[in-house]
Specification:
Number of helices of chain A: 5
Distance between the termini of chain B: 109 Å
Number of strands of chain B: 18
Number of strands of chain A: 0
Largest sheet of chain B: 7 strands, antiparallel
Strand content of chain B: 15-25%
Strand order of the largest sheet of chain B: 11-12-13-17-16-15-14
Shape of chain B: elongated
Largest sheet of chain A: none
Radius of gyration of chain A: 35 Å
Number of helices of chain B: 17
Strand content of chain A: under 5%
Number of domains of chain B: 4
Structural class of chain B: alpha+beta
Oligomer: heterodimer
Number of domains of chain A: 1
Helix content of chain B: 40-55%
Shape of chain A: rod-shaped
């Protein structure tokens, strides 16, 4: 009578572990989806920042060209050159590049890296951090591993059920006892392996 | 009638608790029927699981399509936005050329730039078709509005992707629950099978649990089938996208209304609650227009409303990093340090690399009086602040830390020594970053710090000693709108410097608040070498004026416009304010001088000529009553106080800076009665 009860107990344990495995897998899939959402948001921001940096780099080139033009005409028409320089400075202010130029003459360079960082982080207060997709994927992987581990212990439980069934069918008492002991040990091992990954 | 298998022992030879070996007994027939029915039920639930799985896949596909659309739309919008911005800036150059001609003509009496202003205006007008930024309308000269408008489409695609993912997840959950049901039915069948192998007396311990599992599975599956999957109405998504656009325009009241509309359409829309929670907070913050990264001050009502919405978002599964960080911050201010700690730790668990939750956790621990832990977490926060890539973000984070430590000391007086110590740690760290070659000043002392507030200028004066050459000092300026509000450290007003000063004496510092304050309180903490030397507060003289900041970035003019006054700024480098009754007027102008004077004498001569021209502009009969050197922040220039007519007085002011730019101010008002003009004049700032 004990063996059928044991078979029932192990079967139910296996079912519970299956359910827990499904839950872990479900959490993993949720995190997979979240990681995709976050990746889209972060990549959108990255794309926007790159576009902005290239666009502002183009405006910086125009600014330098205006200054170079002023240099070119300064000997023959210093007033026009001065006006051109003033215009170039206004252009730099309007184009929002002044803070990223190394100077105010034609040889000054545009700080692409600085502009990129500024563009990338101008919405940090509300946007997901750039490393968040990777962290969420890591969380998803942890859930996947737990689910896989629990599914493995379910297979272990089914092996125990088979052993118990063999014990039940066995007519020789020593063999029955040995199979029962093996089943008990298997059950405890599988349970011990499953518990750390249950919650 | 029954048959007996000769291979098996006969029924009569078995004990009552041994298995019944008859093939066809009423019990076995019932069990067989039960197994058949359970199998049928399993098949039905399996079908439902398959259907839910198929719907999950289909919705997942929609989400993937939406994500690709979001990225593609983002690319398109970015290309469009920057093309239009480039066109705008180029066309602006033509307009600027016209403006320099016109303003130069007004101030210098000649064309400052060769070429007729009308021609430049015509040239600029030919380009108006390039972008709405160049045409009259809501978008005129507002690249930020155009940007937010263009990015509605990509944002919508991203929101649709999120909604589709949520729906797919919901179908996935259903599918999983059905699979769980099938598993339970398999267990039930196993138990039924086992019941055939035991005697009649103990069958029930297999039969009853089996029946219970079947009933539970039927009921559970029915519930799962009845509950509809999560689905977000398209109109609710549109409303959130509109809210995001409005929030981007910093119209947080309208954004909150848009998010509320989304919630009315779908009361389970976590994203809408999360966004409204942030929008409500920003709407109630005096930092709404100045801070990009961190907000430390908000009204109590705004914080409460934000807490309610963010918690609701959490309940609905929106446990993202930003929601947790904002909850951690809000609960600190309520104050509920335990919850603040909890949410901050949850945010750190999601992302340990960012400084804000570490700062919030530090504040909660300070409030709880857990000094050792607070010092450890502050060290973690500082490490992360230092690693942030932009100077502005680092500055805001350091300022936010100091501001909220002041709040911690006020909320929990027992925590004041620890709060002051951690504040000094933040000052020390930031100071070493900004003034890395600063010399230590262990003997520095300061006292008699006094503050004077006039218009938008705060003037600090302090007596100091023990300041070696090269030592760095920090002026930390705080502001609050009323005594009941939290102090906010103003990153834009505070500064670190290594001034060239004698070892002892009196030091001054002027700072200009571009926010057009009309009341409130300022507080200045003076630090040397990361040690607070002294502190002082001053009340801003309350004025009845309601002022709005106006900035002409190209012309370098900042003014405060009183409500009811007319502001005219059609030309860059020329801003005029006219009172509602038309009796007071102020004009501020700047123009680059194409042939700037190179000697002091030539400069004085040109300034005097400009002052004469400005005086003639007011009234050719105006006479100079007094000449003075006056400050219009940050420049000191020559001012002529005028008697304009029997009924009007006025003044003109001009200076040519080392940058070759001529800057002027002129004003007229009823005789002896400048009224609000005096206050407005004190708020002009050139940049």
């Amino acid at each position: 009578m004990l063996l059928p009860v044991a078979i029932a107990l192990v079967t139910i344990t296996g079912a519970v572990l299956t359910y827990l495995s499904i839950r872990q897998e479900s959490a993993a899939v949720d995190n997979d989806r979240l990681a995709v959402i976050q990746t889209v948001l972060v990549q959108s921001r990255q794309t926007g920042a790159e576009s902005q940096t290239h666009a502002f780099g183009g405006l910086a080139a125009q600014y330098r060209a205006m200054l170079a033009q002023a240099d070119a005409i300064s000997a023959e028409d210093p007033q026009a050159a001065q006006a051109q320089r003033a215009l170039a400075q206004s252009f730099a202010t309007s184009a929002l590049i002044r803070g990223f130029m190394s100077g105010t003459d034609a040889s000054s360079t545009f700080d692409y890296a600085g502009q990129m960082q500024a563009a990338l982080h101008n919405s940090d207060a509300i946007a997901p951090p750039e490393n968040q997709p990777a962290l969420t994927m890591a969380t998803a992987d942890r859930f996947h591993n737990r689910a896989r581990w629990l599914a493995g212990t379910v297979v272990g439980m089914l092996v125990v059920v088979v052993l118990l069934m063999l014990a039940r069918l066995s007519r020789a008492r020593p063999r029955r006892l040995m199979l029962t002991a093996l089943s008990a040990a298997g059950y405890l091992v599988a349970l011990a392996l499953a518990l750390p990954h249950t919650f | 009638m029954s048959t007996v298998d000769p291979a098996l022992p006969s029924a009569s030879s078995t004990a009552p608790d041994e298995p019944d070996d008859e093939l066809d007994t009423p019990f076995k027939r019932r069990v067989a029927l039960g197994v058949t029915l359970v199998a049928l039920l399993g098949g039905i639930i399996g079908y439902l699981a398959s259907d839910a799985g198929a719907r999950e896949s289909a919705t997942e596909r929609q989400a993937e399509v939406a994500s690709v659309a979001a990225l593609a739309s983002q690319n398109g919008a970015a290309a469009d936005a920057y093309e239009q911005f480039g066109d705008y800036v180029n066309a602006l150059s033509l307009k600027r050329r016209r403006d320099i001609d016109l303003v130069g003509g007004q101030l210098l009496g000649q064309d400052a730039v060769p070429g007729a202003a009308d021609d430049w205006e015509k040239a600029g007008g030919q380009l108006a078709d390039l972008t709405p930024l160049l045409r009259p309308g809501a978008m005129a000269d507002r690249p930020d509005l155009l940007w937010n408008q263009l990015f509605v489409a990509p944002n919508l695609a991203a929101l649709r992707q999120q909604a589709a993912q949520q729906t797919a997840g919901s179908w996935g959950d259903k599918s999983n629950l059905y699979v769980g049901g099938v598993t339970l039915l398999a267990v039930a069948i196993t138990l039924l099978g086992l019941s055939l192998t035991v005697g009649a007396r103990i069958r029930r311990i297999f039969i009853w649990p089996s029946g219970l599992l079947v009933v539970l599975t039927m009921a559970g599956s029915a519930v799962v089938a009845i509950i509809p999957p999560a689905s977000t109405p398209s109109a609710a998504i549109d409303a959130v996208a509109e809210g995001d656009r409005l929030a981007g325009n910093r119209d947080f009241e309208a954004a909150t209304a848009a998010y509320s509309h989304a919630i009315a359409l779908d009361s389970d829309y976590a994203v809408a609650y999360s966004r409204r929670g942030l929008s409500e907070l920003l709407a109630g913050s005096p930092q709404r227009n100045t801070s990009m990264f961190v907000v430390t001050t908000a009204t109590a009502a705004a914080r409460q409303a934000s807490i309610v919405d963010l918690n609701r978002a959490l309940d609905l599964g929106g446990s993202d990093y930003t929601t947790l960080v904002n909850l951690g911050a809000n609960y600190f201010h309520v104050p509920d340090y335990r919850r603040s700690e909890r949410f901050s730790r949850e945010a750190i668990a999601l992302n340990p690399d960012l400084p804000l939750p570490w700062l919030n956790l530090t504040l909660a621990l300070v409030g709880e009086g857990r000094e050792a832990e607070a010092r450890t977490t502050m060290a973690s926060a500082i490490d992360r602040i230092k690693s942030r890539p932009t100077l502005q973000e680092r500055g805001e984070l350091f300022a936010a830390g100091r501001s909220t430590l002041v709040t911690a000391a006020i909320q929990t007086p027992a925590a004041e020594p620890l709060a002051l110590s951690l504040q000094a740690q933040l000052v020390q760290t930031e100071g070493l970053l900004l003034v890395p070659k600063g010399v230590a000043a262990p003997d520095a002392a300061g006292h008699d710090l006094t503050l004077t507030v006039q218009g938008s200028t705060v003037r600090a004066q302090v007596t100091y000693s023990g300041l070696p050459e090269g030592a760095w000092v920090a002026w930390m300026v705080y502001y609050r709108t009323s005594a009941t509000q939290d102090w906010t450290q103003r990153a834009d007003l505070s500064l670190y410097e290594a001034p060239t000063l004698p070892a002892a004496g009196t030091a001054y510092k002027n700072v200009f608040d571009l926010g057009c304050p009309t009341g409130g309180e300022y507080r200045v903490d003076l630090y040397a070498d990361g040690r607070r030397l002294t502190t002082a507060t001053a009340t801003h003289p309350q004025t009845a004026l309601a002022l709005t900041p106006f900035s002409d970035a190209v012309g370098g003019i900042n003014v405060c416009r009183p409500t009811g006054w007319t502001l005219t700024a059609e030309l860059t480098g020329s801003t005029t304010l006219l009172s509602a009754d038309g009796e007071r007027q102020l004009t501020v102008r700047t123009v680059p001088v194409v042939d700037p004077p190179t000697t002091d004498a030539a400069r004085t001569s040109l300034v005097n000529a400009v002052l004469a021209r400005l005086r003639d502009e007011l009234d050719p009969q105006a006479t100079v009553v007094r000449t003075a050197q006056d400050l219009f922040f940050p420049l000191v220039g020559t001012a002529h106080v005028l008697h304009v007519s029997d009924t009007a007085d006025g003044y003109v002011w001009a200076v040519i800076g080392t940058d070759g730019v001529l800057r002027t101010v002129s004003a007229w008002y009823p005789s002896g009665d400048p009224g609000d003009l005096a206050d407005i004049s004190a708020r002009i700032r050139f940049s």
